[in-house]
């Protein structure tokens, strides 16, 4: 039986560390799940492909503060259901002396978004997305946009769920 030489063992260790250093990051382009790594932490989101038909690596079902350092957890509400208007300053707030809620435009499973539309919490999706400060930080076919409008928000902080947190993330450019 042959015993591995120390130089072969060191080469294998170096190769293993090099492979770990090249792990895909949130926001990297992908076509299939394996493009985002083999450990099933990152998935390939192809729901909004770029002009070349490529999606991006994301982390699904995140919560506030748990994304990799290059990313932020955002909550996206299904835009096709954003049609009922509401007043975010008055929704679900007791208005009478007996505590009766006089303004309740949204259903119990909905939240009144800051732009004045009811959004279904059950259909909302959270995922880690690449954070940016300018378009230059986004890959080709993507742009840097702010959260806080259009059904796109930073996931709420459990320590302060009412606070509105804002971030900028890379999203595909509409054709």
Sequence-ordered SSE layout with sheet pairings:
Layout: H1 6-21, E1 29-30, E2 43-45, E3 55-60, E4 71-76, E5 110-112, E6 118-120, E7 125-130, E8 142-146, E9 152-154, E10 168-172
Antiparallel strand pairs: 1-3, 2-3, 3-7, 4-7, 4-9, 5-6, 8-10
What features would you describe in this structure?
There is one protein chain. The protein is mainly β and 175 residues long. It has one helix at residues 6-21; strands at residues 29-30, 43-45, 55-60, 71-76, 110-112, 118-120, 125-130, 142-146, 152-154, 168-172. The strands form three sheets. Strands 1, 2, 3, 4, 7 and 9 form a six-stranded antiparallel sheet that branches. Helices cover 9% and strands 24% of the residues.
Summarize the model shown.
This protein is 9% helix and 24% strand. It contains one helix and ten strands.
């Amino acid at each position: 039986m042959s015993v591995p030489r120390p130089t072969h063992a060191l080469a294998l260790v170096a190769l293993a560390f090099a492979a770990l250093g090249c792990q895909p990051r949130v926001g990297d382009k992908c076509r299939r799940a394996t493009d985002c790594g083999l450990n099933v932490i990152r998935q390939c989101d192809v729901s909004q492909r770029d002009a070349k038909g490529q999606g991006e690596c994301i982390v699904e079902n995140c919560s506030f503060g748990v994304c990799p350092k290059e990313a932020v957890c955002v909550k996206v509400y299904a835009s096709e259901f954003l049609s009922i208007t509401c007043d975010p300053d008055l929704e679900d707030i007791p208005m009478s002396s007996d505590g009766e809620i006089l303004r309740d435009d949204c259903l119990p499973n909905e939240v009144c978004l800051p732009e004045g539309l009811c959004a279904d919490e059950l259909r909302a999706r959270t995922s880690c997305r690449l954070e940016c400060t300018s378009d230059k930080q986004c890959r080709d076919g993507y742009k840097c946009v702010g959260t806080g409008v259009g059904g796109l928000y930073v996931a709420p902080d459990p320590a302060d769920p009412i606070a509105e947190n804002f971030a900028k993330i890379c999203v595909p450019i509409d054709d």
